[in-house]
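Much of the work behind modern protein science is quiet bookkeeping, done one molecule at a time. The protein below has been through that process, and both of its lines are reproduced in full.
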Amino acid sequence: MKKNILTILAAAALVLAACAPKQTLTISGLNPADFEDTRDGIPVALYTLTNASGMEVCITNFGGRIVSIAVPDREGTMRDVVLGFDKIADYYPENNNSNFGALIGRYGNRINQGRITIDGTTYQLPQNNYGHCLHGGPDGWHYKTLQVEEADSKHLKLRVDSPDGDAGFPGEVTAFVTYTITNDNALELEYEATCDAPTVINLTNHSYFNLSGDPAGHAVTEDELMISASGFTPVDSTFMTTGEIAPVEGTPFDFREAKLIGADIEADNEQLRNGHGYDHNWVLDTECDDTRVAAELYCPATGIDMKVYTCEPGLQVYVGNFLDGSVTGKKGVAYDFRHAICMETQHYPDSPNKPQWPSVVLRPGETYRSECIYMFSVK
């Protein structure tokens, strides 16, 4: 009798297991259940965008972070080409200080000594990087939980409500970022913002790309890069722009023709020493025309190619000079030195204090708009 009861119970367990909902992993291997949480009183989740070509983009509304981008290589194998984490808790600042895949605001990049002056009034911002304000300060938008305005399989629209005085910035700001996947394997990022008092805005995305899909074994110095820029903005030893726009011609910063990222990165050059490699803003020749290619990244190992389009005047390129293997990301991979590249479309660093450069001031009645497109293909 006991044996029969055990047999019946085992059979019932099998039936229940078969009927129970199964966890479906994303193409990139993420489990959406690992991203379910509540933070700042707002539900957190993983949102998956897909297209007819099989491309997949996964985003969480915590920090508006792109968690994965899966695209086919030249053999048709799907590769996850951005760095990140396997679960939402690893994105929280108490566990990791990171900006992997994040929406950066109110001001992407650095502001000198964390000070801005608008209409004669000076505001003090956080000083979290060599005495400067970097990426909106230590509590920037990359650590905020964003409201979900719209979500389907093709696009995700998120909202940020930033109060007056947020990280010292003046004015109440309402901002939106919309992620859209297209059938020609592009990811479009559209930003907009309004304010109730004069402020500064410079939004960008901080994804770390490795087009090999193998950040454990492949350094981005082995990849080819083209940047449509005749000039760049030099920096001092604290990464602060000097106010100069220098020509790239005859320097390691000339990427007008595609070349290996590692070709000149160890050259005897003061700017490379100041940036610990490439960590600079290029002044684009595209004249804010988002139909012209601003930059192109190509991985010979996989054949994956990524073109960048933007309406912004600048592009910050950072090649993972401060990755040191101390952060463990997706699939247990330790992210190592120069095993990723960031390509951040933006206004120039410290534009609020450089009146000779395009303005980043936003006023009531105006709408800030910006666009960045990452388009993937194979060669």
